[in-house]
Fold:
Amino acid sequence: MNAFFTLVARDLRLAYRRKAEVLSALFFFVVVAALFPLAIGPEAAMLRQIGPGVLWVGALLASILSLPRLFENDWRDGSLEHLMLSPHPLGLLVLGKICAHWLVSGLPLVALAPVLGLQFDLPPDVLGMLSLSLLLGTPVLSCIGAMGAALTLGVRGGGVLIALLVLPLFVPVLVFGAGAVQAMQSGLGAQAHVSILLAMLLPAVFFSPWACSAALRIALE
Amino acid sequence: MTMRWFYYAAPQTFYGLAGRLWPWLAALALALTLAGLWVGFGLAPSDAQQGEGYRIIFVHVPVSWMSMIIYLAMAFWSVLGLTFNTRLSGMMTRALAPTGAMFAFLSLWTGALWGKPMWGTWWVWDARLTSELILFFLYLGYMALVSAIDDVRRADRAGALIAIVGAINVPIIYFSVKWWNTLHQGASVSLTRSPSMAQLMLWGMLLMALAMWAYTLAMVCYRVRTLIIERERHTDWVQALPEVAGAKA
Structure:
């Protein structure tokens, strides 16, 4: 477990020293969210209706942006091979990397989404559900995305390829995440959607490090 | 019997077997397609509610079945490839993918052709249509990943992993009609109860389904031969093949 926390702390420190990478994905999220009202028109009723979906899609695309770097830097400077040779189980280390990645790229999206939601005229309880659904959904995105990142490590055209591989797998998360916010908005209550999001989160956290380790072994053998 | 299976697991022996099989399978596919189309368009009665337009199901249903079955077959070969580390399974997965992608596309296309007169729209965002679309994307993702990696061994293993992960989607497609009660109707054919359609319609559909199976097997045999000969081109047995030696001379 010690190795896990050390790795998380190391990745957070590295991310802190390269702030631009983290901030550009966040900025991308803000810009994408601003494009929709400009394209569709500023009527409040329309914005309220499309808001949850637009913010979820924006968060999803922003979380894809940072994926190629998840293993890339470690792979280039050789520290990934050291991690794989270390006596600690690789799955645990990969889980550490996924956690750090989520803290750096997923959590800021969760924090930023309600602010952007105000631009779409969403009421407070819906904003709360938006944050909650993103809080449960973005870790799943990180878990699935990490697998795509491990599979495409060092492959030409990696960035686009990751999107092509993981976007279809992101669809259920998107459907139930945005669905939770819409259910809240229409007064139905989002309990069912939140339960399903949780039901996706738990197996994702359990199986993803395992699949990522297999993918990394394939990439580095 | 088990010995025979492993005997044909070697690309060299499977090359010969596939070469003997594929012309027969292709002929069988052609015969079954003609028979299926004849039953479907000539003999089967018109539907009480849908008139003649329903006849697209003779293509739509078998094609949709195959698009799911082929993905499961890819996942099966991927599991075999990752566990036993056989060379042939990667080639089989790769040979299956283009046919599966074609069937997924045809399923969406014929569904749209049926949807326009029956539902009044080419496309609805219904659970089954959406998950079939995702299946099509999964095929494309697999093919993109495999073709982006130059090292064939790594490409096969990486592709195997993504095929297995994507296989989660297949049961979702199959059961989506039961779980979400949306526009797409439930299954008309089931093993557990008598079918809710005329006998002749059922026969037409089954003939077409068998035709698609034969076509798929023929295509896979043909394609896997090309893959084998391409990957094993440095070996003596490929160089000694009459088609290779003859082409050089």
